[in-house]
Fold:
Amino acid sequence: MSILITGVAGFIGCNLAKRLTNEGHIVVGVDNLSRGALQNLSVVENEANFHFIETDCADMPSFLAEMSTFHQKFPFTEVWHLAANSDIPAGVSDATVDLKDTFMTTFNVLEVMKTLGIKVLAFASSSAVYGDHGDQSISEVSGPLLPLSNYGAMKLASEAAISAAAESFLTKTFIYRFPNVIGVPATHGVLLDFVNKLKANPNLLNVLGNGTQQKAYLHVDDLIEGMLQIQRHATEKVAVYNLGAEDEGISVRSIAEAVVARVSPRANIVYGVENRGWVGDVPKFQYCLDKLRKLGWTPELDSTAAIKRAIADIVEQEITKK
Ligand SMILES: NC(=O)c1ccc[n+]([C@@H]2O[C@H](COP(=O)([O-])OP(=O)(O)OC[C@H]3O[C@@H](n4cnc5c(N)ncnc54)[C@H](O)[C@@H]3O)[C@@H](O)[C@H]2O)c1
Structure:
């Protein structure tokens, strides 16, 4: 198969490219390198079946031109759309960030697929589409869907546009609602933030929020395995799936203590006062994963084990190797 991945130079995109090239697919990856980096592609740069194109998916004329050229050589059979803004606070302070990188990239991916006749789409959505449901366990039919951030709003709008496209020109669509995904190469997120703060000042860790925020975390290896399992077994035309670990998650306080213990045990941890880290942060969420379990899949690592492994890998990435 010939597969297009958008956002390939980001954290999840490069891991996915590695997995799909290893399976023997031709993979064409695109990225505008706004938040990803070429060095993340070192894991695939020597693969003969991997090709990278630097392009902005929000710029329709150049995106379509680049994709048309490649489509003539290796007709794409499916698209994995991962390009998006991953900085939620940036999108809260400037709504055009998520309009462009989270929504327009999706809109344009759909236009390119329609123009070139590509019929299978896998989309990286997010738990952010649900908003704040407190202690309720969230299934794929939970509602109302009231996102707290522009990022979540533009992911939800993307899902809506994909649903409409499925009615007219897509034959199969996978909408994956990711939880917090961790691992390397880390490009953003709480672990990278804590490790870098301690690198800058080994005596102090300032935590956004009061530390009670509690969320589930999924290791990127499990995420990719889960997505592929859904692709193999889901029967719906528009397959919407929560992906995650089946546990209550782990608090930000526990994560801060674990990172301090690993990086700088003498550091003083100072917490904020709010129960959320920033505007748009959802303080607590827990997934109901019955639908995913019915496909016969559960992740290898629970949130605690995933955090432990990711801390070790991110410390190696940020400190040991530099
Ligand atoms: N990591 C998580 O915890 C998480 C959680 C939920 C959803 N997601 C979704 O998964 C996908 C991948 O996330 P990630 O963690 O790898 O983030 P990331 O920031 O590392 O990767 C996103 C990539 O998209 C690229 N990009 C952004 N705008 C673009 C544009 N206009 N044109 C071309 N490329 C563009 C960036 O340069 C970056 O390389 C995103 O859609 C994200 O919203 C991630």
